[in-house]
Amino acid sequence: MADQIQSLQEQVLKARAERQTLNIVGGGTKSFMGRTPDNDAATLSLAEHTGVVEYHPVELVLTVRAGTTLSEIEAVLAEEGQCLHFEPPRLGENGEGATIGGTLACNLSGPARPWSGSVRDQVLGLRLLNGQGEHLRFGGQVMKNVAGYDVSRLQAGAMGTLGVMTEISLKVMPKPATTATLVQEMPLDSAIDYMNRRAGEPKPLTGACWFDGKVYLRLAGARSAVEATAEQWEGEVFEGGDALWQQIRDLQHEFFAGDDPFWRFSVKSSAIMPSLDGPWLVDWAGAQRWYRGQATLRDLEPLALEAGGQVSLFRGGDRTGEVMLSQPEALKAIQRRIKQSFDPDGLFNPGRLYSWL
Amino acid sequence: MTSESRSSKQQLADEFRSFIDPQFVISDEETLKPYECDGLAMYREMPMLVVLPETVEQVQRVMRICHEKGVPVVARGAGTGLCAGAMPHKEGVVLSLAKFNRILDIDPVARTARLQPGVRNLAISEEAAQYGLYYGPDPSSQIACTIGGNVAENSGGVHCLKYGLTVHNLLKVEVITVEGERVTVGSDGLDACGMDLLALLTGSEGLLGVVTEVTVKLLPTPEVARVIMAGFDSIEKAGDAVGAVISHGIIPGGLEMMDGHAIIAADDFCQAGYPRDAKALLLCEVDGTEEEVDEHIAEAEAVFRKLSATSIRTSTSEEERALLWKGRKSAFPAVGRISPDYYCMDGTIPRRHLARVLLEMEKMSDEFGLRVANVFHAGDGNLHPLILFDANVPGEFEKAEAFGSRILELCVEVGGCITGEHGVGVEKIRQMAVQFDDRELAQFHSVKVAFDPKGILNPGKGVPTLKFCQEYRSIEHKQHKHEQAGAEHG
């Protein structure tokens, strides 16, 4: 457990004085994401800035330093029967390296996301070093806080381009008492409809995915409710359920193996499948669809827009060009000015999110 | 009004009337009058003009004209807000979105609703009910308040602990920028690429853009909901009971607390059968499947019994559930009946400090000579102290304001915040300087500039100028020192 804030602040101020750009790195497990990092940038490491600052299980609130690993956080929560219910992917060797800061910067959440919310949804507040080396506090440690702009959640998906997150307060939840997974064979198109319809029922559903001709539904919650629903719904109880959801959550599932580019479609959950041949893994009851194959962002964008959503190049492929959905000029201008407002000298993760930011 | 400003007002009205139905460009005093305040009627200002456009193109043209001329624009939904966030600017235009009141589409399979901003919050759930769906956030003004206003204030309600605030239930918004550009933020998917502008816009109190369309998520209506009413002979015990239920792994759909004053006022008002001798009352609602609710109700009852609840009653029918909630839901009018006026505060605190905060509030109540009744979203720590006063007694509102201000400062002191769901607006702009330091406020200002370089969107709200803060802090500091000195001498 260590508070490195002084050192981090000094590094930012020095970089500012020397006009040295910085690559912000936590556990380094998500270096494959975003555009190719700036070669000339120096590393600003948060790996030592770790530890639980405050944890009040009864309040469901946890405050940790940004470099704390997910595995460390989960161990602390497990002692109180609680968990990170947005199921962030535990990337890195043996699932050890990923930090909470990186998870929020990349806005990564797991299979429970449609029901439990995303990492962004759980953020209550944070502390941030801006480009002038000022250590600022936004939000708080309470569930409801509408004072000032929501700078905390703005960081989700910004990939560190707006500042160095140093401390994050999160809502945590009790671990579900029981889980069960149901499986049945189904073609993908029918599965999309089926998963959406099941998600519209008031049952304890917390996972719905399709892979290789089978649809899997996860139930979690009070034992009586899980058992009763498993009886009512069709499908076999799948004994390997917990392992399967873990593999999908941590991107360790066989689907994610290999060097082919991975594309992430975040679309309307009920949208018909884009006409694109190749292997798919569909999660989030249809709202997140992973596609593996050679393609260009330019070709996939219209398909994602037609499905009511967006597409990004998640891993592999050409990362020197854009990897995120293109933005209209008016939003580009606003985002450039937001960047300017946090990081006037353009120190943090230049070009990592968009070539123009 | 000078002759110069009168002619510019006339000119602007004429210009708007060239593309908006002239009867929806309001410039006469009498018709402007209802727009002078929002739900916090103590704060009033007459606008220069009110416009009620009927198309998005008209909204865009209004924005372009105002931007070019540097005329302030205050967007307005139903005007039910409680922080004077929709109070007009005397040299500005009130942009009412009241004509945008259509539910554009409900998709029962994807569980989404596409709405114009003037759609009422409750109307969404009413329309979605035929599909077994509803919209989660339910602010107490839900009969009247609009979804556009909910986005602007990031509104909550009594179900936030389990179902979140507005920000957790949005998919995308269409926004008109200050320059009149029409942009969409978010998508029909759950997560959008890049920095989260949707979150930034939510709760921005009309300072960053004007919302012209909102897509929300809908939730399946729970099979069943039951509520436990439990009375306690002390606030501490009720507070402990809240913690114990949550520690037990139960997340109630709603978890409300009322203090002794609120219990009696509410019970007098609607005969809900509340235990009138209790010092604190909990309403703990559990929703879900039949099996889950039965299981959790039994566990929660056991927890309350163990923590020596003085009375426990659990609803066994929808009628009984409605009756038990009725007292809580009518707590504000109930308190309105025992006092000529009341002033509702909105601080949030970490729940563990509840007893301390209520005790200090009692002391302040004696000090200011004003009664205070407390209703509390206990699940999420959001306090709504109701300060009772009489506006006809000169100086009494100012006293209520000063009392309220002290309560909010106390909330910050124990690690909470000055507003949980009502917003800052004009009302709490002074306390912003208590929760944030100058560098943080400067960062807010520069975010504002990124959207609105000329500062024409809802000026004077939300974020105080730094000069203002310094003055406020130094006054507070002097007063505090003065009080301390007084206490020492006493």
TrEMBL record, chain A:
Write one Pfam family the protein is assigned to.
FAD_binding_4
Give residue ranges for domain FAD-binding PCMH-type: 1-175
Keyword NADP attributed: no
Listed A to Z, the keywords are: FAD, Flavoprotein
Q: Which GO terms describe its molecular function?
A: catalytic activity; FAD binding
Keyword Ribosomal protein among UniProt keywords: no
Give the InterPro entries listed for this entry.
FAD-bd_PCMH, FAD-bd_PCMH-like_sf, FAD-bd_PCMH_sub2, FAD-linked_Oxase-like_C, Oxid_FAD_bind_N, Vanillyl_alc_oxidase_C-sub2
Protein name as catalogued? Glycolate oxidase FAD binding subunit
Q: Which species is listed as the source? A: Marinobacter persicus
Automatic annotation (TrEMBL), chain B:
Q: Which Pfam families match?
A: FAD-oxidase_C (PF02913), FAD_binding_4 (PF01565)
Do you know which InterPro entries this protein is assigned to?
Answer: FAD-bd_oxidored_4_C, FAD-bd_PCMH, FAD-bd_PCMH-like_sf, FAD-bd_PCMH_sub1, FAD-bd_PCMH_sub2, FAD-linked_Oxase-like_C, FAD-linked_OxidoTrans_Type4, Oxid_FAD_bind_N
Kindly state which keywords UniProt assigns to this record, in alphabetical order: FAD, Flavoprotein, Oxidoreductase
**Listed GO MF terms:** FAD binding; oxidoreductase activity
**Source species, please?**
Marinobacter persicus
Q: Which PROSITE patterns match?
A: FAD_PCMH
Q: Does the record carry Oxidoreductase as a key word?
A: yes
| CC cofactor | FAD
Ranges for the FAD-binding PCMH-type domain? Answer: 43-221
Instruction: Show which residues constitute the signal peptide.
Output: none
Protein name as it appears in the record: Glycolate oxidase
